[in-house]
# Entry
Amino acid sequence: MADGWEIANALGTIVGATGTVVAVVVALGISIRDGRAIRAQRNDDLAAQARSVVSEVPSAELIRISNHSREPILSVWITALNARLDRADGTQQHYQGSASPDLNGVVAPGSGWDVSVSLHNVAAPSQSLRPADDEKWHVEVTFRVLDAGGTWWERVDNGPPKRVRN
# Structure
């Protein structure tokens, strides 16, 4: 029969081993969490310039891509245009369009690039978007930019930039 010291020694070994396992699991969890935070911060830092490039729609025929960053944008592509027109009578019409040409040049810091667009009614392609003064319209612009670091980014309606491969 085991004496009291042997039982205490065995219990101490079990408690020590359990504590070691718990410490390893906690350390692993912290490491995973910190790794995710570091990756998220790195991605956020990479996207800083892309967040500073925005689309503006001053009219139904024109889109402007403005570079509010401190670095040049090396290329811009408008990849999709979708519009909705809310008519005064309460009806809606949907339009899709294209922009040309793509910009294969530099948009300097603090400047913009204007591009003509053509938006056509989805149900009647011969109709172009020509809103009246009392009608509300919205154009959703999807565009890609090549930042100064050589990374392509895509934004939909000035939402958060998403890194893409081109």
Helices lie at 4-46, 48-51. The chain is about 30% helix and 40% strand. Residues 48-164 form a domain with the Immunoglobulin-like fold (CATH 2.60.40.10). Residues 4-46 form the longest helix (43 residues).
